[in-house]
Records
---
Amino acid sequence: MEAMDSVAVMEVTPVPDPLFVGATPLIPAPPESELVLRRSARCLGRPRVPVYAEPQEPKQSTGRRGRPKKKRDEENQDPAPQVAAKVPRKTAKVEPKERKPMPVVGPEPVPADFTGAAAEDDALGTGKSAKLRVKETLRAFNSHYLHLVQEEQKRAQAVIQEIAAKGAAKNKDGKKGGEGEAKEKRPSKRPDLKAITKMQENNSFLYTEKVLGPIPGIDVGDQFYSRAEMVVLGIHSHWLNGIDYMGMKYQEKKEYENFTFPMATCIVMSGIYEDDLDKADEIIYTGQGGNDLLGNHRQIGSQQLNRGNLALKVVDDWVQKGVQGHVVYKYKLKRLEGQPSLTTTEVRFTRAEAPRKISELPGLVCDDISGGQENIPIPATNVVDDPPVPPSGFVYSKSLKISKGIKIPSDCAGCDCEGDCANNKNCSCAQLNGSDLPYVSFKNIGRLVEPKAVVFECGANCSCNRNCVNRTSQQGLQHRLEVFKTASKGWGVRTWDTILPGAPICEYVGVLKRTEEVDGLLHNNYIFDIDCLQTMKGLDGREKRAGSDMNMPSLHAENDSEAPPAPEYCIDAGSIGSFARFINHSCNPNLFVQCVLTNHHDVKLAKVMLFAADTILPLQELCYDYGYVLNSVVSPDGKIVKLPCCCGAPDCRKRLY
């Protein structure tokens, strides 16, 4: 068999390191002539703690205020392909050491008229598309993973403190100790394997049987961040072996009576074997075995023709001496004709064939829309309009502006931790979050373990340092982003870096106003209601988040009163705002909204933050659920106003409101 399966996952090389530099000012323009639209945190498209019973349908809103509203002209156009093509999901890391996403291919041929199995609904009778079930499985894995990382960090910290205490006692007696023992009892590096076990115990693997040929929900070009997620999806059954195969027991099954076993079903190219060669449409694959997996990853012994190597034996295979002089088995695999192309912009980008400088970007209209305010420049590109124009009609600001008459409280007490609060099990801010800090740290970037009713961060009155993991939302932009013109949705935002689940994206900023100030205003569709309190109390059809009841006593005293059905405050990003104002809606988003408190506990004035719900690959567009309620917009004559949704998600609701 000279074929690679349709489950091809392209190898991702590191994104070029140089940061974007330079900036040119935006061209001011008059605001668009449209009515008010109100976004909120009511959206349900966020990751949750895994529950393996089928979820019930969300409640419908009954009391949302309605008034005439419109969406900007670009969103009223017919749907059309966007500039940035889809990039599938990856999961969290296998080890604390960052890895490249790994390509996966299989030897089974696909039909000549193959059009992609991901477009089909799976056969489980849930009414969900196969793509959505893949995403839900990956989110469940990531939820387990982050909780287990949190547990492991706590355990490791306790061990280190215990060793340090014993070392101090030994030193008093004139004996050496402490440091050496701490090195011996370093933290475990495999919470991903524990997450696999958790999901296996709960029968939450997506596909439990090995599959020949296309797998529903998995497309050519899909990329995965770790082998562990391939295991929970059922693409590759082992977290370490490079070749997955069906053994001799399958010969007994009638549906396989014409096959020869063992038969390979999937291979992984992780970059460990130095004899591998990846040309995208043709792969020279090295068999398994003889590799120093725990050392320098070089061949230290000869391979044997058994197990996976025997299962992968195809027409074009041979034996040769490898780079290190040991016998290795080689296999030549070619893609079948009729499969989707791998020469997408995402593949070119991840193979370091994309522009390395801002000046090389196609359709560049602005070097940095932030004008140097952000940690990293944010270029803007436009290959849709002729002539191309930059985003306009607003003043960039990375921080929230406060309207006159609104006073932000600053009366809450802070913690007395030294250094990072992660090192103090008695941190008072951790207690507010339910005894554990809401974040775990990865490469100096905090990752939110799970969406919460509200996150209590360390603030101005805390004694911990500015790099404390519990100040994650205060660290500014951490990833390279680009504002780009889409074909059907106006401006959008996409990433140039891999963003992991739980990583902070940005704060939704603008002008903080009372909602009564914007009621009836025209020409503004960038209003975001701060409805955290209403969500915590489950009002107006909102779904409560974890910790809603627990956190209420810790909040500002005014929150104990009966909450109004509509939020009292909102953020207006119509004329002042950041790149967050350009992040588009999706019915199947990769971001979620999180309310955060820092210097006060008045949840009605909480910060509105956006976090990654999934692993987001380079050139994938960022999106979140705007939270509009269907049939909630009513015209002056009492008729319901409807607006088609152009998000293009497999499970799109077809209407924005």
Note: The domain at 358-547+564-624 is CATH 2.170.270.10 (Beta-clip-like).
---
Amino acid sequence: MAMALTRPWHFWWGCWLLLRHSAGRRQSLTCWPCLLPLFLPPTTVPSECLRDLQAGLARILGSKLSSWQRNPALKLAARLAHACGSDWIPAGSSGSKFLALLVNLACVEVRLALEESGTEVKEDVVTACYALMELGIQECTRCEQSLLKEPQKVQLVSIMKEAIGAVIHYLLQVGPEKQKEPFVFASVRILGAWLAEETSSLRKEVCQLLPFLVRYAKTLYEEAEEANDLSQQVATLAISPTTPGSTWPGDALRLLLPGWCHLTVEDGPREILIKEGAPSLLCKYFLQQWELTSPGHDTSVLPDSVEIGLQTCCHIFLNLVVTAPGLIKRDACFTSLMNTLMTSLPALVQQQGRLLLAANVATLGLLMARLLSTSPALQGTPASRGFFAAAILFLSQSHVARATPGSDQAVLALSPDYEGIWADLQELWFLGMQAFTGCVPLLPWLAPAALRSRWPQELLQLLGSVSPNSVKPEMVAAYQGVLVELARANRLCREAMRLQAGEETASHYRMAALEQCLSEP
């Protein structure tokens, strides 16, 4: 009894309400989901209550119910999902069956509400079902400690696909007069969550909807921009999709970025996005979001979603650089983007904990510099020199020589700052090395600048101090590419490399192209 008295006041107040409301009523089993959301804490639910709530919901939703009985239970489950994720659902067979039941029921409700045009939509119920579908998407894509087994995941993905098809059908009917309604935003949100993980199915339907999504995101962005309401943009995803009376948040772009990142790889969707003006919109959005992280703004209050959004924008731009280089050259918005990247990287590479964003900015800037090499802004201006110096800093500090016990020779190892995130960083690093190599012959001032930074000398010194067996072939290729281009571009670079035992190092690592280049006058 002493332990029971320590339960939070939310619990006792709720019990009193339920007992008072259900006294003498046979339908008490299904009335309490209507009341519980009224006194659930706004953020987290006391852990001791979760087991009872889940067990009660499992009994209710596992019974044959009418819609007026089932809908409050779905809304309560959605509130719990928003507050606790999947932590309130027990692991094991019972938990996986319950989650599968939740997602199944949610998908059925969504299809019933949205597939038939002209049907009155119970927006609060469907929005709650969206939250449960989002929970299902998260669990289906979770590799470790997922509540669901693989056959259940396959089944739920198929069911959710049909529900997403209904969402697309609904959005295609939305006119301009409804675009400010929160339910439309909630529908775009669940579609964005789906597209972030799955773009191969419903491809035809998604392509058909893309013009609407671009126009919708542009409308919301421009209205927020006119109001100068950056705080509204920051708080977008902090609002519960199932909270009655939530203000219309406005930032649809952040919801769509992951899906658009996937779609820009594919020819058909990419052409639609370009035709509808998505790249220009994304450039403006990136510059606006970047402003939030610049000096003068309190970055400590920014949610992680802002930095993640910036990284995802960089990935989209990287896709466009590779697949649509002509667009980068002709669209003026990318010139503005390049200027921002150049002025921002020097400070960014010095900031603790922002290495992954710096990697994105450096790699994107290097790739764009190859395409915009004739731009006046890249002809040895202070901004361009500062950018390339910062890019060299990012590329050169990734690896160090590390002593090994019992051996006279050190091995090549990742720097401490890079080691923990190398899985996310390595593709950008290799792409950045390749892009820098491509910039050297296009920008005559770059090789002397690299020589002044002492990168080629220090790189050869690093290779000479470690065991060649510790350097992977792909690393050898990346290093050789940079050294060869610098040597070819500048006589002083060649001389400096020879003084640093460049020919001997090239022989040890079987860098035939570098060895030949250094043997020439």
Note: The two ends are 91 Å apart (CA to CA).
